[in-house]
Amino acid sequence: MPLISSIAELLKRERIPYTCFRHVPSYTAQEEAAVSHIQQECWAKVVICIADEQPVQAVLPAHHVVDLEQLRLLANATELRLAREEELGALYPDCEVGAMPPFGAVYGHRAFVDRSLVGEPEMVFNAGTHTEAICMHYGDFAELARPSVGAFARPRTHRPAGSVGRRRRIPPRVLSPKAWRRVMKSRPPFPGIRVTANPNQLVSYHTETRIADAGAFYPITRRLKAVSCTN
Length: 231
Hints:
alpha+beta; 7 helices; 12 strands
């Protein structure tokens, strides 16, 4: 399927440099980034919201989700919600559902982009289908789309199935000042490799010994003697 005509004409008219490529059919932004071998922070997904009965585009990295309250404040709206699937077909009749490109101006919709995408040299997004994508510099995208920039994306929270209300957070152990000084005196003279420190646990990997569960940043090139944190 060729690039949809409205987008192709827009890019040609504005003389925007871009590349268009095909990928295997995928239906979420994270899947599309994976099958295209694109980093998720570079793949821009488009989430359609309804702000005071007007559609708006929220553009953010594939592995993030929209904070609706922050987007509502950015849009200066009284009410904001996610658009329903049946609304998407009416708003973007020339696109497959869920594959809208972030060019809200073509459809008369305001566009908001999360600041984490600003300056991205290889910004990739859907080209109107679930098998085609467009890649361009963020600067070219911003020149064309004129989006409002703000902070409304937050990392996706992953929870194992059935874990809600069943897992108890175990507080970290805190070293006494005396025990901490002993750990610090035992550091080797070579800086730079991050390891963590709970002096009661030692785990060996080849010639490196790591101490787990606390927060020091020193390489271990020789086996250390465990220091009790009860002192």
